[in-house]
Amino acid sequence: MTGRGVLLTAYGSPATLDDVGSYFTHIRGGRAPSAEQVEELRERYRRIGGTSPLRAVTAAQADGLRRELARRGMALPVYVGMKHASPFIADAVAAMARDGVREGVVLALAPHYSRMSIASYFSTAAEAASAHGIRLRAIESWHDHPGFIAALAARVRDALARFADPSAVEVIFTAHSLPERILTWNDPYPAQLRVTAELAARAASAGTWRFAYQSASHTGEKWLGPDLLEALREIARSGRRDLVVCPIGFVADHLEVLFDIEVEAKETASELGLRLERAPSLNDGPDFIAALADIVASAAQTAAEPRAGARAEGRS
Fold first, then answer.
1. pTM of the entire structure?
2. Which of 13, 135, 136, 278 satisfies CB 3.0 to 4.6 Å to 52 for a cystine?
3. How many whole angstroms separate alpha carbon 93 and alpha carbon 131?
4. pLDDT digits (tens, 9 = 90+) for 139-173
5. Distances (CA, A) of 223 to 110, 217, 234, 266
6. pLDDT tens digits, 239-257
7. In the prediction, which pLDDT does 219 show?
8. pLDDT recorded at residue 218
9. Measuring CA to CA, which residue among 53, 60, 132 is closest to residue 91?
């Protein structure tokens, strides 16, 4: 039993192919997708082995964080809550309450803040926390944390080392696209991504590099670009043939990494005569877990400040 705890939040993924329909409906706010849309999404999961490893990876990250915090003398329980799949964020907060947690920190397993994405995780956590009398402090973003940057750079160097001449390889840093309307909100998402890319490129001693968005949805509105697949076509036109993709917006293997990059982008690259290698995901790598522990430990020191109130702090 403890009075403090840590809540990690993530997007979520269906447990089985049979769950894809209900998962897709939840993402759409309760509006059921067409049978064709469900089957298209199921096929993507089939192409990566039938299910996403996100649940298992996130659980491993939580366990690694708990152990690393304990090694540093902070014996804090770590909970996992998903936005669109079980265990849901509200369920995780309820578990915290049952275990006697009364204050703590909530961190989204996505380094870059956007009102459209991360803020929704925090508002869900805040509502549940308020109902249970739990005080949470939200860690808004950690896009420039030195440990996070170092972990990314190590993986870029790993991928570059697969080429005979790493200096001739172009690095593309990617993140999930969002609707372009976030720009009218002065949303920090694009600027934070640019900072991460610049810091990681410098730390990895990358020569030529660029940033591109990936995984845009077909919603009828314009999404942030440039798109990864168009970047591949531009690189092919430039005469370069070797490239590394490092998805800086994702911290675990899941559909957007294993299908959108490993299948779709690699197929496009092959058609264009390009060799594409992906930098390994951070997953539960010890260096990344150490970075998370740094971030959480720092926030935990102030989690009990009176101004936090019974809510999750952050932009709304």
1. 0.94
2. 13
3. 10
4. 999 999 999 999 999 999 999 999 999 999 999 99
5. 19, 8, 19, 22
6. 999 999 999 999 999 999 9
7. 86
8. 85
9. 132
For tokens 């990895």, the residue is 204
Q: Which tokens sit at 76?
A: 């804090």
* Cα–Cα dist 73/303, whole Å: 17
Of the candidates 113, 156, 57, 115, the one whose C-alpha atom is nearest the C-alpha of residue 249 is 113
Task: Decide if 123 contacts 85 (C-beta within 8 A).
Answer: no
With b for 16 or more beta-carbon neighbours within 10 A and e for fewer, the 236-250 pattern comes to beeeeebbbbbbbbb
Closest CA to 278 of 236, 254, 244, 251: 244
Q: Is 19 helix (H, G, I), strand (E, B) or coil?
A: helix
* Exposed/middle/buried for residue 178 (C-beta within 10 Å: 0-12, 13-18, 19+): buried
CA distances, 134 to each of 10, 100, 237, 308 (Å): 20, 9, 55, 10
**Residue that has been written with the tokens 């531009």 in this structure:** 234
Q: Which residues of 196-218 are buried (b: 16+ CB within 10 A; e: fewer)?
A: bbebbbebbebeebbbbbbbbee
Tokens of 41: 């999404």
pLDDT at 277 over 80: yes
State the number of CA atoms in the 13 A half-sphere of 150 facing the CB.
Answer: 11
| Pairwise CA distance, residues 256 & 271, whole Å | 20
Of 127-141, 162-176, 209-223, 289-303, give the lowest mean pLDDT range. Answer: 289-303
Question: Residue 172's beta-bridge partner residues?
Answer: 210, 245
pLDDT in tens, 212-242: 999 999 888 999 999 999 999 999 999 999 9
- Over residues 57-83, the mean pLDDT reads 97
Q: Do residues 64 and 282 lie in contact, with contact meaning Cβ atoms separated by under 8 Å?
A: no
